[in-house]
Amino acid sequence: MKQEFGIAVVTEVVSASHIKRVSEVADMLQIGSRNCQNYHLLEAVAGAGLPVLLKRGMASTVEEWISAAEGQKFAKVTRNMEAKLKAVTKEEIEYTMRVLSEEDEKKAAKKGGEVTV
Predict the structure, then answer these.
(1) pLDDT tens digits, residue range 70-84?
(2) What is the DSSP track for the chain?
(3) Is the pTM higher than 0.70?
(4) Sign of CA dihedral 100, 105, 110, 114
């Protein structure tokens, strides 16, 4: 259907173990209202790199629905940060510290003061 008619595929994921296979064919992942507070599943879906349709059941408050979305966003941001931090070398950190220190010294010199660390 997807290739023949050019229709995007949205499908519900109910288990973190299904995400990888479903992500290979789906354009968007759906989390049903029953799994809206399944934070393990939300965290796993956040790492899939696809848009997520987060359904809200009639019994869920708007605050609970937003909280689920924020939890998913937080998980994705955390994963991205962890990956970037793992990629940083000691030399890059030392270089950054040196550049920041030089910038502080230049700012202090413009103001006529000294830098205290």
Answers:
(1) 766 656 656 666 666
(2) -HHHH----EEE---GGGHHHHHTT-SEEEE-GGGTT-HHHHHHHHTT-S-EEE---TTS-HHHHHHHHHHHHHHHHHHHHHHHHHH--HHHHHHHHHHHHHHHHHHHHHHT-----
(3) no
(4) positive
Beta carbons of 57 and 36 less than 8 angstroms apart: yes
Mean pLDDT of the chain: 78
Tokens 């968007």 -> residue: 28
Residue 54 neighbours by CB under 8 Å, 6+ apart: 30, 31, 36, 65, 68, 69, 72
Assess contact for 26 and 1: CB atoms under 8 A.
no
Residue whose entry in the numeric block shows the structure tokens 């990629």:
87
